[in-house]
Amino acid sequence: MSMRRRGRRRRTSIDGQFAARLIKMLESPPYRELSLSARRVLDRLEIELAHHGGMDNGRLPVTFDDFRRYGIDRHAIAPAIRELVALGLIEVTEHGRAGNAEWRTPNRFRLTYKPTNGEGPTHEWKRIQTAERASAKAKEARKPIVERSRAAGSKNKMPVGGKTGHCGGNPHLPPVPGTPTTGNGNKPTLLSISRGGGLGRQSTPRRVRPRLSQRLP
What we know:
It is built from eight helices and five strands. It is of the alpha+beta class.
């Protein structure tokens, strides 16, 4: 009986390599907010870790072509990576470089819920504890970089109808005295045009004296 028991396979054993994930992470708001492309990127990174024998976490080289061959649309790869980074599930430890084959280098990744170089996992995803915050961070990360830069730049623009009161909206140029005021109480500056076509110094309008049609006796 003892020999037969030793030869039996345990029901909980897995025949082959597998990727373990904490149930707490699967139930967390960051993981539940992941898009389909982000989940596929995460799966491909775990496959790469398994190909390295569970080692080299933090130095996992995965190219865009590797993600594309795994079934991820090329235009969805970068937003998915940004999403995973924002939600604290992965880290890009080294940014790659595009170019010819001899100069091209891939991105290198670290799974935050896996050990790295003998040290335990860092679990940055635990910092996001609400579904609202996870959803906001994921949506912001998925936005195109151009759209996010435009949104940030629009905050710095002066609203239409703002009070400048100066030529070109330069607050360092004082209004010229003696000029008529605008609707907001500021006085516009007058710029003279030189013979070369450039703008000269500020000047006030000169009063033209009327010419006498006849000389006085």
